[in-house]
Amino acid sequence: MTQEKTVLAEAGERRRDAERTRTELLDVATEEFADRGYSGARVDEIAARTRTTKRMIYYYFGGKEQLYLAVLERAYSEIRAAERTADVDHLDPVAAVRRLAEVTFDHHEAHPAFIKLVGVENAQHAKHMNHVARLVDLNSSAVALLGGVLDRGRDEGVFRDDVDALDVHMMISSFCFFRVANRHTWGALFDRDLLAPDRREHYRTMLGDLVTGYLRK
């Protein structure tokens, strides 16, 4: 291997190492902020769990707040990416809406830390989220995707004309969020586990029926 190729290979490996380190820091920080909130989370603890240093975290992110904002941005990016890969353009409008609802259902169940992070940020009146302009664009894309499906449904005469895409997004999100966020209190009050495997398909179908039932003429 020539010296130039050796230098390029070493540079590529350093980039990969940096990406792995950054990903690991985000993974651990997500758990820390989700479990302890913004105020309770400790950068020292994140450093200890990733076997790195506080100085290294500041090198990658700049500080605790910037790390928290990076966690939030990645969390929302992941669910928006899942929606984009749903590939609903080839589905009829009713099936497409049901599919988008199922994507949110599956994502929220698989990412309880996301639910906790949203709760943390709501408790703080979204004061940190307001500093991440990209979050507005990310989440606007979800409403635009849903809006396109609703437009197709109206054009085909299967959906009501007075439906707002953001309202439908709220309906889907609220069902999926409640199911995960309120699992333990619901179980204590009613002795029913909302995440019980034997009721999963029941709730998944129920969500689709609720949303499409609301939309139909």
From TrEMBL:
<dbReference type="Pfam" id="PF00440">
    <property type="entry name" value="TetR_N"/>
</dbReference>
<feature type="DNA-binding region" description="H-T-H motif">
    <location>
        <begin position="42"/>
        <end position="61"/>
    </location>
</feature>
<dbReference type="InterPro" id="IPR036271">
    <property type="entry name" value="Tet_transcr_reg_TetR-rel_C_sf"/>
</dbReference>
<dbReference type="InterPro" id="IPR041474">
    <property type="entry name" value="NicS_C"/>
</dbReference>
<dbReference type="InterPro" id="IPR001647">
    <property type="entry name" value="HTH_TetR"/>
</dbReference>
<dbReference type="InterPro" id="IPR009057">
    <property type="entry name" value="Homeodomain-like_sf"/>
</dbReference>
<dbReference type="InterPro" id="IPR050109">
    <property type="entry name" value="HTH-type_TetR-like_transc_reg"/>
</dbReference>
<feature type="domain" description="HTH tetR-type">
    <location>
        <begin position="19"/>
        <end position="79"/>
    </location>
</feature>
<dbReference type="Pfam" id="PF17938">
    <property type="entry name" value="TetR_C_29"/>
</dbReference>
<keyword id="KW-0238">DNA-binding</keyword>
<protein>
    <submittedName>
        <fullName>TetR/AcrR family transcriptional regulator</fullName>
    </submittedName>
</protein>
